[in-house]
Design brief:
Number of domains: 3
Largest sheet: 6 strands, mixed
Structural class: alpha/beta
Strand content: 5-15%
Distance between the termini: 13 Å
CATH topology of the largest domain: Rossmann fold
Number of strands: 13
Shape: globular
């Protein structure tokens, strides 16, 4: 257990005892410590005399959790549990994914980040500030575990659809890594959340007396790049072979950092590549309903940033695999941002946007762009709530018998439309996916069960596959394999009720399949550094952490 399993009659001297043991969340079992353990470990009398089971503890936690009146209070409750008993925390999350995942991650984590300084109780992860330049390695060595296999790092500049949250953004890597463990069984001590505090340009935060980050504008230019590079160099030195996931960096940094490091270290950007895979999987599922081919689709994105570009680029890769030229594949993808449709004549485009700016007249309104282009799918990833209006959805339904409408922005307040709106305005014909959870909707006599196009279907399995094979790189082909594998896990019964993704209850099984597909790519691309097991699926499953209590004596 976390490299500290103790068996037999004698307890080694290094093993914590007494209150130190009860205060170690990786080892604490609370009331489930047996009589023998209480005697051997010096905790008799420090706990009530009843020896309980993990199942009893689960029931107690759920009873109190479900009394909490708001999602934020539930988040605080689960965070406190995470801080005192990791195994119990993950047992509850794994066994109740539909109830727990929206609390520990989207949509509640967005509010938790906004309130981070006000609800802060106990530190988790490593904070590296701009003041730590020149000593980042020594900061990382303060982390108590040396078996770290994956780091999720953010600088807090583009948290979900909420913008610059500075040091408050730590909630994102903490939440992401909780999903790595819950959804794919990455050992908790192998997970390290990191916040690069380079300041914030959010003046409201800097004026908040409860704000816990640097009270200064954001670091920019060479000094910023030097800090990032020092962090990456130090992380790879302190934790050899570690996977580094970039998370919620602003567009201005996300693309160039991914480009700078993706061929040098084992890294990826989930906002670009993970979002791409989960969205493409949803399109594959939708095409099983329509009977159409990917090559016949025209996709219009509301948004032209990390998510839109990532989805478009992975879609182009899929189209290339089907025989289309690069140019023809790019013409299947269109983008719309705050200044209108991306067209070739615009002079304000960034490099990653230019392949999707085509030679057509400009359009300033999204509805006009829909009418002009007649897309088969619209995908919202701009973080601007309500942009898929009744007129837009109605136009999509007029153009297509089964319009593909993905409102992927989160949290819920940023959703382009709700599930109820999508089904009502399309008269029940929309093939809908969302970024935040929505309840089932009855429209036209049918009950639809919308499911999230949530990255938690993708990135945990990718991480598991890369870690299990000790792969040296993370490639686009791994994300393509993930998208296809996720789509294959969607049943006909799922599709019949309007679900383009499998149920969250199956996410660990999905992750195992995705990890196996990723591992296959790692071996095919000669990126794996272990000998190939005879049964790859069983090998992957054997790596997955199970949060059950272990006997110490």
């Amino acid at each position: 257990m976390n490299g500290k399993t103790v068996t037999g009659k004698s307890v080694p001297s290094w093993f914590p005892r007494g209150l130190a043991l009860l205060r170690d969340p990786t080892l604490n079992k609370s009331t489930a410590f047996t009589d023998a353990e209480r005697d051997a470990l010096g905790i008799r009398g420090l706990l009530p005399p009843h020896v309980g089971s993990q199942q009893e503890q689960v029931a107690r936690v759920l009873e109190n959790f479900r009394r909490k009146p708001t999602a934020l209070e539930k988040y605080i409750d689960l965070t406190a549990l995470h801080d005192r008993n990791e195994a119990l925390f993950f047992r509850i999350v794994i066994d109740n994914p539909d109830e727990m995942l929206p609390i520990i991650y989207t949509p509640t984590v967005g509010l938790a980040c906004q309130q981070f300084g006000h609800i802060f109780q106990r530190p988790r992860g490593i904070f590296i500030s701009a003041d730590d330049r020149g000593r980042v390695e020594s900061v990382l060595r303060n982390w108590p575990y040396r078996d770290v296999a994956i780091i999720v790092v953010t600088d807090g500049e583009r948290i979900l659809g909420l913008g610059d949250q500075g040091a408050n953004g730590m909630g994102i890597p903490v939440g992401k890594l909780a999903l790595y463990t819950a959804c794919a069984g990455i050992e908790p001590t192998q997970c390290l959340p990191v916040l690069l505090d380079v300041g914030t340009n959010n003046e409201a935060l800097r004026g908040d007396p409860m704000y816990l980050g640097l009270q200064q504008p954001r670091l920019r230019g060479p000094a910023y790049d030097e800090l990032v590079d020092e962090f990456i160099t130090a992380a790879r030195h302190v934790f050899p072979g570690v996977v580094i996931q970039f998370e919620d960096f602003a567009n201005s940094n996300a693309f160039r950092l991914l480009k700078a490091y993706r061929d040098r270290i084992c890294t990826f950007n989930d906002d670009i590549q993970g979002t791409a895979a989960v969205a493409l999987a949803g399109i594959f599922s939708a095409l099983r309903v329509t009977g159409g081919k990917l090559a016949d689709q025209k996709i219009l994105f509301m948004g032209a940033g990390e998510a839109a570009t990532g989805i478009a680029e992975l879609t182009v890769l899929a189209l290339r695999a089907q025989g289309l030229s690069q140019a023809d594949a790019e013409k299947r993808c269109w983008m719309f941002n705050s200044k209108g449709l991306l067209v070739a004549s615009r002079t304000d485009l960034q490099g990653h946007q230019r392949p999707f700016a085509h030679d057509v007249p400009p359009e300033k309104e999204f509805l006009a762009a829909v009418r002009a282009l007649r897309p088969t799918a619209i995908i919202g990833v701009a973080g601007v709530g309500g942009t898929f209006t009744e007129q837009v959805v109605g136009e999509m339904a007029a153009i297509n018998a089964r319009p593909i409408i993905f409102a992927l922005s989160n949290p819920t307040s940023k959703s382009e439309c709700t599930a109820e709106q999508a089904y009502a305005w399309s008269k029940g014909r929309a093939l809908f996916a969302c970024g935040s959870p929505f309840d089932p909707v009855t429209a036209g006599g049918q009950t639809f069960v919308p499911r999230q196009g949530n990255n938690s279907y993708i990135f945990p399995g990718v991480g598991l596959g890369v870690i299990a094979t000790h792969a040296t790189r993370v490639t686009d082909e791994m994300f393509m394999a993930s998208a296809r594998t996720l789509a294959q896990r969607v049943t006909e019964a799922d599709l019949a009720q309007g679900s383009l993704y499998p149920p969250l209850a199956s996410v660990r099984e999905v992750s195992a399949h995705i990890a196996t597909a990723v591992a296959e790519v790692a071996f095919a691309q000669n990126l794996a550094t272990i000998e190939r097991p005879d049964d790859l699926m069983e090998f992957v499953k054997a790596q997955m952490y199970d949060p059950t209590y272990h006997a110490y004596v």
